Automatic annotation (TrEMBL), chain A:
GO terms for molecular function: nitrogenase activity. Pathway: Cofactor biosynthesis; Fe-Mo cofactor biosynthesis. This is Nitrogenase iron-molybdenum cofactor biosynthesis protein NifE. Coiled coil: none annotated. The gene is nifE. This protein may play a role in the biosynthesis of the prosthetic group of nitrogenase (FeMo cofactor). One of its GO terms (biological process) is protein-containing complex assembly.
Automatic annotation (TrEMBL), chain B:
GO terms for molecular function: oxidoreductase activity. Residues 19-425 form the Nitrogenase/oxidoreductase component domain. InterPro entries: ChlB/BchB/BchZ (IPR050152), Nase/OxRdtase_comp1 (IPR000510), Nase_Mo-Fe_CF (IPR005975). The lineage of its organism: Bacteria, Pseudomonadati, Pseudomonadota, Alphaproteobacteria, Rhodospirillales. It comes from Skermanella aerolata. This is Nitrogenase iron-molybdenum cofactor biosynthesis protein NifN.
Amino acid sequence: MLVDKVQEVFNEPGCATNQDKSAKERKKGCTKSLKPGAAAGGCAFDGAKIALQPIADAAHLVHGPIACEGNSWDNRGSKSSHSQLYRTGFTTDLSELDVIHGAEKKLFKAIKEIVLKYDPPAVFVYQTCVPALIGDDIEAVCKFAADKLGKPIIPVNAPGFVGSKNLGNKLGGETLLDHVIGTREPEYTTPYDINIIGEYNLAGEFWQVKPLLDKMGVRILSMISGDGKYNEVASAHRAKVNMLVCSQALVNVARKMEERYGIPYFEGSFYGVSDMSDTLRNIAKLLVGRGAPNDLIARTETIITEEEARAWRRLAPYKDRLTGKRVLLFTGGVKSWSMVTALEGAGLEIIGTSVKKSTKEDKERLKKIKGEEFHMWEDLKPRDIAAMLRDAKADIMLSGGRSQFIALKAKVPWLDVNQERHVAFAGYEGIVALVEEIDKTLSNPIWRQVRLPAPWDAPAPALGETAAE
Amino acid sequence: MFKAHQSNKAAAINPLKMSQPLGGALALLGIDSCLPCFHGSQGCTAFGLVLMVRHFREAIPLQTTAMDQVQTILGGYDNLEAAVLTMYERNKPEVIGVCSTGLTETKGEDMRGALTIFRKKHPEVAEKCNLVFINTPDFTGGIEDGFANTVTAVIDAMVEPASVKVSNRVNVLAGSHLTPGDVEEIRDLIEGFGLTPVILPDLSTSLGGRQPDDFTATTLGGVTAAEIKGMGAAVLTLAIGEHMRKPAEALELKTGVPFKLFDRLVGLEAVDAFITTLSGLSDRPVPARVRRQREHLVDGMLDGHFYFSRKRVAVALEPDLLYAYCGFLQEMGCEVTAAVAPTQSAILEKIRAWSLLVGDHEDFETLSRGADLVVSNSHARMSVSRSGAPLVRAGFPTFDRLGAGHRVVVGYRGTRDLLFEIGNIFLANDHEHSIQDWGLEGTTEGHHGGSHAKA
């Protein structure tokens, strides 16, 4: 039952925020109740799709009216090095008659058409609000289709109205645990096999990290899910170590894989020099703990020393230019503390950050780095952000696309650090790229020009400069 | 009614269609001090919002009643009421427009009844703020339908019959296929005759790229509520696009203002008809500036036609824009090999193409094989990356190019610029002859079709 599943996800013991709650609070779930007329953000379906769609060789079929896929396909920057099928938008595009008569048969036909035409290794079928409401049983249809067509057809039961995008991420993860992970064996295994969980390869940024892992000799058994391959995800249970990238999104996958398959996991980040190094160290340490040869640790340290030195060398020229520049940082979760250290290393001053999506642990960590004085905003209204920018409290804002116009309309430099961005910011390469982007943006010559008032709006010139009346 | 052949696949693949509420929101964004809202789950709003932000590169005010599963079953009135009250209290907009969604329509929410109850319970809000509730189910129609239904609902809810006519006032019902730039051009043409247009909706003043002094959570710019109320005082309504027929009829029924429908404003003769109407209505000669613009277009047609003749073009757009592009391209000598629309419309009957289909981007990819040019929204970028055909981006959404809101194709000037844009693509891709081109019968097949003109 979906209700049980949602409850189970709310009870997630791996989630730091959850551990601080009473049993009663926990039952209420992780999402603040949404205020009609003042809510923002995606739905559970959106979240499930974000988590799963990066599995690139699978077909992703949305069972619903046109809004769910027609308004949203082709909008994510997750990159694939192999199949491009995940970028194809599939939907049953329910009509009025489907709503009246039910659309289970149409769903089966749609799955069949896709399998015959595209022959993907699997089809993910996403439930949405309308067919959930009319009682279309997608689990039954998927099972029937899987039997008939001889392929994994996977129901993703996360209709939008069950909750937020974050809940949807987790329900997407549950889908993998229930239907995918552990259903196939890898062709071979090595002592260096890891899974990366919760990394979506936005702007291809995992490819900034992969060469480091290759050099260490670490094999990525499966990516969950950026640049992912279905069969690799299905064999993820044979990895030696799991790395969990974005703590909030898929913690349930990492924790349950530990429970079921005994795979230890650690939370890490690819953002910033020291975080990147810690991540590499953790991977090496955990792999050695699981039987990989000891020399992995020394090899990793050599790589870290080289790469850190190179990164700081490349960052040094920016330091003079950026020292004292004030940054407003609005990102979710892990990225906050991860980026703070990284940016300060380049001389920037971070005046505050949002912690809306951060766990208690994230906040503690931030406090430790920055001291009690540092601004941490739980929920800042656009109007307040605009006022802050107008009063010139910050030189640049880093945030997601949703709030870009607050900065741009206040004629304040802005940089996209969220999911729609086109620049990759991961690893030692990425932090240099991020600082280069900040420098480019801050030093662009438009800022002085766009702040000039129109000549006719300017204050009247001083007396004597105009002809006497 | 005429029905175009419809693709009969169970799965739509790479959809061309977008939902009705999205069209509804687009219409409401052309009204000043307005807050549009979707009555549905918060994802309904988030998807629409993101798409419009990507297209216009502007802040888009769009709220949600944030329905969850329990509220959906128990009935969504409470959420609707709470949403309207919150939006009103926080932002004091002059207009609140609420579009239903697939979710609330499947449950069978009574939008009209909800409005009546709300007015009774909260007269203090209903008196100060114009409330428009619109039925826009996701599972029928598309953007054009949602846009037309919303404009009609705004007219029904807000326009008042007028006892006095203002002799130089005209209404313009501007369809969803017009960009803010197009609307600006239309206003310019109308004002050139000393006429004062009231444009519903007016995206040119709201989504063209405003520089506000302060942060605002409602729309900034667009036609005002007072102007909408006074639309009964106009002498004529100019309805632009076939899908504006329904609101034009509603306006005529309510106020007695007759309407004239222009199914497109792209192409020499189409613009001639529009200009003739304006000249007759104002009893003024055509301004010198517009005469020059016409000359320039004619000259462009003479210079450019070489490159258009017999070119094969495939077009996939919303119905009225599809008709405009197909018509113009044919008038320049092109062959329209494929015309694909996302939804049915009366205008499709007027489109002449080798194949005409209501379908998706996958159908379009198949039908557009071998075309010299593809015209569609940004989603076609994937199929042209496979076929190699040049793509002219038009319509909604255009998210991978700057200036989507300022693309102007209406009027003599707009047509001329479009002619040059497309003509330049043909010119750049023109086949350069080689020694192999004219092998005799049975040796090599030469290059047929295409332009052999020397510039």
